[in-house]
Amino acid sequence: MIVGSISENIKIEKRVAITPDIVKKYKSLGLNVYLNKGYALHLGISDKKYEDEGADIIENQDEIISKSNALLQMSILSDDNINKLKKEQLLIGVLNVYSNEKKLKEVTKKKVNCFSLELLPRITRAQSMDILSSQANLAGYKAVLDSFAYFQKAIPMMMTAAGTISAAKVLIVGAGVAGLQAIATAKRMGAIVFATDVRTASKEQVESLGGKFLTVEGAENLETEGGYAKEASEEFKKKQEDLLKETLKKIDIVICTALIPGKNAPLIIKKDMIDVMQSGSVIYDLAAAQGGNAELTKVDEIIDSSNGVKIMGETNILNKLPVSASNLYAKNMFNFVNNLFNKEKQNFDINLDDEIISKTQVK
Asked: Is residue 240 very low, low, confident or very high in pLDDT (cuts 50, 70, 90)?
């Protein structure tokens, strides 16, 4: 049996699905690994490094698609390559089922088995495969670093003979994995950190990291059974707006991380809120690619508001940390494949009684 992976379009996606150390793990299962020439050269990883671990480097990408029993990717294949998939093949990656719904329906009609890892259930057995957590962790960290780089003042409190510099005040919107890592990173760098989330259950986590949780009066725990945030009522949104508008008057940096699976990102920081912020403040919107949590956000642009606030957000912030992100993703991917592969029969066993398999399969 063969697992294969072909290069992504590195202008859009620099992460890879298989790293050299993971090749060994696939080989230990009895699987062959096919990769195209120059697969991870952009990450400084030579073909020889893969070959030394037992991978086969194939010149022609079409051969990899044709011969692989399972194609392991970061994102969905291009239209041309999608058309080359055959019945009973497996396509595994972050396929973004909501935005690629039409394309995936065509693929599944061909009896190609598609598995999208962002659909993994939040159960203990799936933790080692949880790509959303591993990638969001890095995204929260990097968003803090990038926003601090654009902020033109020192972050920690500094006491000097010439006087004292006050610590920067940071607000984290959304206390999921990315938000919690953002809190931890900002605290480590000496900032005073506030956080808000529709899930009141996150209050304890925020406070354990040294952040101050902003509680909306009469708030309910807006959390799905899977542990994700769900959409708030209009009454909650109004109370949250009032609290945020008052808080933002004294905030230097805002990191937005709030997302709702399968929907556009909720609009939380409106223009009238940005208007009360201090000149020189920075908003980093991690939800930019899903529409943004801030009203003025534009993907891959740095917007200067009329009162001197910078608003920034990128299509894929993890393209700035592709080596670390690939290392984590490749491990998540292997753990998923390992669960899917029947070692005794030496084939892929699509056992729909397994919640991990049934929830991630694209129907």
From this structure: confident
Q: Are residues 159 and 190 in the same domain?
A: yes
pLDDT tens digits, 57-74: 999 999 999 999 999 999
Q: Is 130 marked active-site?
A: yes
Whether 309 and 335 map to the same domain: the answer is no
In sign, the C-alpha dihedral spanning 148, 255, 210, 121 is: negative
Is 300 in the active site?
A: no
- With contact defined as beta carbons under 8 Å apart, do 287 and 140 qualify? no
Find, among 88, 134, 52, the residue nearest to 321 by Cα: 134
Measured in degrees and rounded to the nearest 5, phi and psi for residue 344 equal -70, -45
Catalytic residue list contains 127: yes
Considering 130, 146, 252, 285, which one is annotated as catalytic? 130
Q: Are 299 and 265 in contact (CB under 8 A)?
A: no
Number of domains composing the chain: 2
Please tell me whether residues 29 and 163 are part of one structural domain: no
Active-site residue (options: 75, 128, 133, 324): 133
